[in-house]
Amino acid sequence: MSLQNPVFIPGPTNMPEHLRRACDLPTIDHRSAGFPILLASARSGVQSIIKSRDAEVFIFPSTGTGGWETALANTLVPGDTVLAVRNGMFSHKWIKMCRDLGLNVVMTEVAWGEGFPADWAEEQLAADTAHEIKAVLVTHNETATGVTSNVADVRKALDAASHPALLLVDGVSSIACMEFRFDDWGVDVAVTGSQKGFMLPAGLGIVAFSRKAMKETEQGGLPRGYFNLQDMATATAAGGYPYTPSYGMLNGLNEACGMLLEEGLENVFARHNRIASGGRAAVRAWALEVCAARPELYSDTVTAIRVPEGFDANRIVSHAETAYGMSFGAGLGDVAGKVFRIGHLGSLTDAMTLSGIATVEMVMVDLGLDITFGSGVAAAQAAYQVGKTEKFLEAAE
Ligand code: PLP
Asked: Ligand 1 — pocket residues by CB below 6 A?
């Protein structure tokens, strides 16, 4: 009997058995005839998921962080200026990487729980008549706080200022779970990884480049070797890699895209929205607050929940693990100890989510918080009850 509970960390996510098997292949020669077919299929699957007709998709044996580096190192030159917002641990780390790579960062700090302020970006871009700013960095879904920023508004800000800067978007915890419109939003580089919406182990850094971003890769760039996109593009065009690819992971990615497209992207997004709404209903029933400042910022993939003042949120995460064998996300950076996170993305059903809500409820009761057994579960049940979801969503949010 398996004693494995679902995980409720915001990645890596639960792996469907089909995808576990898809990654578990015997050794296959990556120079054999099947490889270019697999690679083309996986690239086209990702393209469909990000809603792009002609983005160039590249898949590195890496993680999302490698994707960030690929985006920066291939489109910018040392000393270039980028515009960024720090609103959580992942936007913070991306900014740190920019600095480590010798870029000049113009940034603003907003409260952790806020989104990307597109009006601030528009002011900065409009004032930059010399077009010193070469790229705008947006973390679509800040996994540390459960905040989704509006990428379309950032595109509008760029257009309103008639500014040519590239739009680089971290979609690590949004792509394949929430609406992501690469073409419509005029995204130049999108970055993601295999271990969240694609329901695979960590191990792939996935990037998509617009034509405009591809053009930038032909010039200069930051010092780079492994992440040289020109080398990758040349090898990809020939149906291969500049080094040894991870055949099993690529097969997993191809199958994951197939599963998501078969479910239907709109159904995948609706499922994530419904599951998240049930989680937020539970938080309200517990009389706790989410970290995201306003409903339009609520993430459909992760909810960060503030605990009462003076209580250490890490105790919830460690007690859940030791007492009930269930993993939740700890608070990171500025909100460490102040929030715990429920990851509700990837391969998850309403019923699985109820098990997470019920377990965290037991944990909070065990730790002496003023929570009534069943309160959060009942609120989530009302959100998930067959035929009631639409009504619930209209009324509740
Ligand atoms: N960006 C976001 C929003 C993330 O949530 C993460 C990881 O959780 C990363 C970037 C870093 O990705 P990776 O851990 O795959 O390198």
From this structure: 11, 63-65, 90, 139, 141, 143, 170, 172-173, 193, 202
Closest C-alpha among 158, 198, 195 to residue 180? 198
Peptide bond into 295 cis (omega under 30): no
Report CA torsion sign: 105, 107, 112, 117.
negative
Average pLDDT over residues 279-299: 98
pLDDT band of residue 220 (cuts 50, 70, 90) is confident
Pick the atom of ligand 1 nearest to 139's CA.
Answer: 3
Angle at 133 between CA 130 and CA 134, to 5 degrees: 115
> CA 348, 351, 352, 356: dihedral to nearest 10 degrees?
130
Closest residue by Cα to residue 347 from 1, 11, 15, 20: 15
d(CA 268, CA 364): 30
> Amino acid letter at 179?
E
- Distance (angstroms) between ligand 1 centre and the Cα of 152 equals 21
Instruction: Convert 166-191 to b/e letters by CB count within 10 Å (16 or more is b).
Output: bbbbbbbbbbbbbbbebeebbbbbbb
Question: Quick check: helix, strand or coil at residue 341?
Answer: strand
CB-CB contact of 344 with 302 (8 Å): yes
pLDDT digits (tens, 9 = 90+) for 239-272: 999 999 999 999 999 999 999 999 999 999 999 9
What the block records as the tokens of 249 is 């992971």
Q: Name the percent of the chain in helix, strand, coil, to the closest 5.
A: 45, 15, 40
